[in-house]
Amino acid sequence: MFLRSALSLWPLARNGTRSYSSTGVTKLVAVTVDDQTGIATVNLQRPPVNSLNLELLTELSSSLTDLEKNKSRGIILKSYSDAVFSAGIDILEMYKCEEERVTLFWSALQEVWIKLYGHFAPTVACINGHAPAGGCLLALSCEYRVMVKEKTIGLNETKLGIVAPQWFIASLVNIIGQRQSEVALTTGKMFTTEEALRIGLVDEMAENTEDAFSKSLEFFKKFKNISPFARAQTKAFIRESTIQALVKNREKDLKMFINEIRKENVQKGLGQYLESLKKRKVS
Ligand SMILES: CCCCCCCCCCCC/C=C/CC(=O)SCCNC(=O)CCNC(=O)[C@H](O)C(C)(C)COP(=O)(O)OP(=O)(O)OC[C@H]1O[C@@H](n2cnc3c(N)ncnc32)[C@H](O)[C@@H]1OP(=O)(O)O
User: Fold this and answer.
1) Residue 100's domain spans which residues?
2) pTM of the model
3) Most buried pick, 171, 175, 213, 230, via CB within 10 A?
4) Does any ligand 1 atom lie closer than 6 A to the CB of residue 185?
């Protein structure tokens, strides 16, 4: 009953889904809520590779707030593209960046992670494309991961000459354990879907996006006979210490980020990495 009235805030589309965007105009994040199940699909749509810039993160953050307020029954996070789930942080947010913008940018990333990692309803990452670094972080924040075959995922920060912050690391350790994380992080390992499945970094492999989406929907059925309150509170207890570690240190984490990326050698490395991405395209 409550769900129905909450969902009525969203305009109903002909196919039984309600669409909305946090800004009133669908832009970088499109949310549709299935009228029957109350499950929201959050589609990242920033071509070409869904790299995470301030605007995308701001929209994602307000979409997550709206879903929390509207008591969504669950979230499926996916990409508009069948090639890339998210290329991670937009390198241009870190390369030759202005202090004011980079402060807003990193704060928005922290905010998204806190909201997604701690979202009360079940969350699934439908990883229908490559998911390096920040893209992997978004997937790790969800409770369940379904990944399309022959894609790649991982926290490859060291390959860019940067260090993954503690909360990135904790998100990985909580899923694959300390030993596997240490090897993966220090080597900047990008796992194929098959490898990721083998070490438990993802939970299921899918043939294609459609299959991944339908497997993502199946996940919610596990909670058919479980009290939503008991489920949500258990999740909160399990995730609380990881979330609090960042919440209590947001300012310190922000300063560390700004300090780190402004280093001359880091800026040089980021510049070279950007160049290599462009060259890779030509060859
Ligand atoms: C004491 C010290 C303590 C320290 C504490 C910590 C302090 C903080 C440290 C900082 C941490 C910062 C964390 C960062 C995490 C990140 O997310 S960094 C980003 C990492 N991302 C990547 O490495 C992905 C790079 N991209 C790719 O590998 C590929 O693009 C792809 C596999 C995703 C897709 O391949 P394909 O479909 O072939 O597309 P492309 O032709 O490669 O790309 C199209 C287009 O997009 C541009 N692009 C790709 N990725 C990015 C990106 N991340 N940012 C910006 N732009 C990107 C690419 O250059 C192409 O552009 P053009 O069309 O050529 O203009």
Assistant:
1) 2-282
2) 0.93
3) 171
4) no
